[in-house]
UniProtKB/TrEMBL annotation:
Gene3D superfamilies to which the protein is assigned, alphabetical: 3.20.20.220
UniProt name for this protein: Methylenetetrahydrofolate reductase
Keywords, ordered alphabetically: FAD, Flavoprotein, Oxidoreductase
Recorded family membership: Belongs to the methylenetetrahydrofolate reductase family.
InterPro entries found in the cross-reference section: FAD-linked_oxidoreductase-like (IPR029041), Mehydrof_redctse-like (IPR003171)
Superkingdom of the source species: Bacteria
Keyword Chaperone part of the UniProt annotation: no
Keyword Oxidoreductase tagged: yes
Pathway(s) of this molecule: One-carbon metabolism; tetrahydrofolate interconversion
Organism field: Nocardioides astragali
Cofactors (names): FAD
MF-aspect GO terms: methylenetetrahydrofolate reductase [NAD(P)H] activity
């Protein structure tokens, strides 16, 4: 049985979530149907669709009352002029948080990585209260570990959030969080976690989209797709439970979850609510056992 401390940690994490979606034609209605207004929704950047698809969807979701976090993939933005235009559009619709990955596309202009864009955003008197950057518990498929560690350190002066990329090993996740803190990076961490996804739907999404930060990650990492999609290969709650001791520690400053939905928003939200209900039952059982 879960201890009271681990149960409390899991409930807190599952109560502070944001949902990552890909900018497809149907996703706006899927979000509106399955998530209440006020939910935090992040919109990935798709090299095949262009950043306009991300910004336009962010505008529409913001108009519906969602707390939207667009991904401003640095390599998809030509330079400071375009960055200023995008920032102004997002500011006008009330967007207060952005996520800045480097992106996997070939650079279209001046930015070869996230740091270049972050520097320009600061020079433009950054209008966003929250700025997220990527963290890598697992090795990046194309960037050496030493570089990802150094760039996180360099970006800390611009960032207010670190969002971890995918891992399926609770020991790797916990060890990475500890190492980040040991290096003196105190920025709050959001743990990237794939929700429970349907294998057939995931395969269809990967085939149709083929882009976006999450899907490109899957395509580049052999075995990751199998871990998510094969029955019994991946259980998000098992991962969270095993890592809860570290993630729930106050000094680790893990503020919530970044849920990779692969546009399976309904399934992800149902799973989240079910887990919270189960944890509530566990709390009641713990209370009875203590009497």
């Amino acid at each position: 049985m879960l201890t009271p401390a681990r149960t409390a940690a899991l409930r807190r994490l599952l109560s502070h979530v944001r949902y990552e979606v890909l900018p497809t034609s149907r996703i706006e209605e899927i979000v509106a149907t399955n998530l209440p207004s006020g939910s935090t929704v992040t919109v990935t950047a798709s090299p095949s669709k262009g950043l306009e698809a991300t910004v336009a969807l962010a505008e529409r979701l913001a108009a519906r009352g969602y707390d939207v976090v667009p991904h401003l993939a640095a390599r998809m933005i030509s330079g400071r002029t375009e960055l200023a235009e995008i920032s102004d559009r997002l500011r006008r619709v009330g967007v207060t948080t952005v996520f800045v990955p480097g992106g996997d596309a070939d650079p279209v202009g001046a930015y070869v990585g996230a740091m270049d864009l972050l520097d320009d955003l600061a020079a433009l008197d950054n209008p966003f209260a929250q700025v997220g950057i990527t963290g890598y518990p697992e090795s990046h498929p194309t960037i050496h570990d030493d570089i990802t560690v150094q760039t996180m350190w360099d970006k800390r002066r611009h960032a207010t959030q670190v969002v971890s990329n995918l891992t399926f090993d609770p020991n790797v996740l916990g060890g990475w969080v500890r190492r980040v803190r040991a290096r003196g990076v105190t920025t709050p961490i959001l743990v990237g976690l794939p929700g429970p996804v349907d294998r057939a739907k995931l395969l269809t999404m990967a085939t149709k989209i083929g882009v976006g930060e999450s899907t490109r990650f899957l395509a580049k990492n052999r075995g990751v797709f199998a871990r998510i999609a094969v029955p019994g290969g991946y259980d998000p709650m098992r991962l969270l439970t095993r890592a809860a001791g570290v993630l729930g520690s106050e000094e680790m400053n893990v503020s919530g979850l970044h849920l990779f939905t692969f546009n399976q928003v309904a399934e992800t939200e149902t799973w989240r609510r079910d887990q919270l209900a189960r944890l509530g039952a566990d709390v009641a059982e713990l209370g009875r056992s203590a009497r």
